[in-house]
Amino acid sequence: MRAVLAIAKKEILSFFFTPMAYIVVASFLVMNGFIFSVILAALSQPGSSSASPMAIFFGGTMFFWIYMILMAPVVTMRLGAEERKSGTLETLMTAPVSDMEVVAGKYLGALALYGAIWLPTLLYGWILSRFSPVDWGPVWTGYLGVLTVGMFFLAVGLFTSFASRNQVVAAIMAFGILVLLITLSILSILATDPFWKGILEYVDLWGAMQNFARGMVDSRQLVYCLSGTGLFLALAYQALQARRWA
Amino acid sequence: MIDVRNLVKRWGDKEAVSHVSFTVGRGEIVGFLGPNGAGKSTTLRMITGYLRPNAGEVFLDGRSVSQDSKAVRAMIGYLPENNPLYEDLRVREYLEFRAALKGIPRSARAKRIQDVLDACEVTEVADRIVGTCSKGYRQRVGLSDALLANPPLLILDEPTVGLDPGQVVHTRHLIKQLAADHTVILSTHILPEVEAICSRTLILHQGRLLFDGTVADLHRGLSGAGHVLCGVKAAREIAQTCIASVPGVSQTVFLEEEGGVARFRLTAPGGTAVPEALFWACAQANLPLVELTTEKVSLEEAFLSITTRESAQEVLA
Question: What is the ipTM of this complex?
């Protein structure tokens, strides 16, 4: 566990040494702040729906997904690829640390960074609460959705980063996989055949996020995100193990 | 301490390391010698557990590297080829991270880090960012990391590559000091380095172990032969007859006759027997022996003879 924490800590430290970190965090906050204000403006028009702004913020717009599929690869792309390129993977893998601990440490670091990027958005809820009563239940389930979808996406990014020695290639591969996952959501909306529609509903992340934001926690969607996380972490572990043979 | 048994590593159908076996005892300083691409780094990587061998096994103090990998890795301080470091951390931050990885208790870390910084003389750059340090300092940061957990075995892959002559001397001096209480394996393609530091040499060529012996053995060459230069104050024929009576001389080459002195180069086994016999033979024949030198086979010659003989045999086969 000490090794896991040491690796996670080092990743967090290293992330903030790169200019990329500040670009990601700043653009995320600027754009989300802008989107949040646009949502508020739209909802305060007379005759608009009575939906909760946070519900729309968390799943109702495509901006959420654009950010998710861009941000996750950027957070994870360095983790494995950079170690391979600079050769430091060799010092890491010859330290008395198991490959499992390396994967866990890197993943924990990525998750902490992801959390740190989302943390300031709690302010939006606080701002809302100053002007009108906020139903906090759906806000927290919204964050639960952000967490589980994030866990899934970061696991994908970690896998592609261990599978490549080039950060950009790692990011593009992760981006491709994430686009594919979102495409499944869109297909589930478009599908008319009840058989396919039934299957696609299981993997409908967009719909899942909308449910989370409305305060509904569907165990099917939790299971989907968590098993996706498990699958890609296992693949990341395999990709790392493969280094010992090549 | 190290027991390497029949190690094989293949890249595709090419054998990078081919059935290499050797043992290293506690406290030895072993030089791993070979041209670039000989399989030195690959072998070291299999000993440190970074790479898995396709066949064979490595044991450290009786523990298998593949079965008991974590425990074995805790016994090794490893400086990989090209000395990879995290460029964006400060030297002290880097060592703190490595100390945590190596399981040094939090309370002992600061002291231990200061100790290795002092031992490797990097204290003055401890708060600099690794990427801004000179190559010499970076190399010593890598060495500090290898020493951090005070492991009984140090594996250093080309520790002096790319350093200026002053830094090379300094690094060698440091390694020699470390050897007092560590077992050291050091790879290099620089022959004088082996001569300066190591008590024993392993020569690897095209993935095969061609030579395993002391540096003195290497000087004598594989056959153990050395050369003796001698000058006898006599006519060439008379001197040659006298030399022919000396036992143990396998070959006599006439060099020159100048000022009444005939000079020869004799091929003979190492040691003092032949020069001594030569002296008595000349004395009995009343021939003044005016020059007598034993010529060591230079390391370069020995190395080339070992590595090229092998290739020549391959061509003939």
Answer: 0.87
Quick: pLDDT tens for A215-230.
888 888 899 999 999 9
HEC states along chain A? CHHHHHHHHHHHHHHCCCHHHHHHHHHHHHHHHHHHHHHHHHHCCCCCCCCCHHHHHHHHCHHHHHHHHHHHHHHHHHHHHHHHHHCHHHHHHHCCCCHHHHHHHHHHHHHHHHHHHHHHHHHHHHHHHHHCCCCHHHHHHHHHHHHHHHHHHHHHHHHHHHHCCCHHHHHHHHHHHHHHHHHHHHHHHHCCCHHHHHHHHHCCHHHHHHHHHCCCCCHHHHHHHHHHHHHHHHHHHHHHHHCCCC
CB-closest option in B69, B70, B97 to A6: B97
Nearest chain A Cα distance for residue B116, angstroms: 17
Instruction: Decide if A155 contacts A236 (C-beta within 8 A).
Output: yes
Q: What is the pLDDT of residue B218?
A: 74
Mean pLDDT over all residues of chain B? 86
Confidence of residue B74 (pLDDT cuts 50, 70, 90): very high
- Beta carbon pairs, A and B, within 8 Å: 74
Tell me how close the Cα of A84 comes to any Cα of chain B, in angstroms.
10
Cα torsion B158, B162, B168, B174: sign: negative
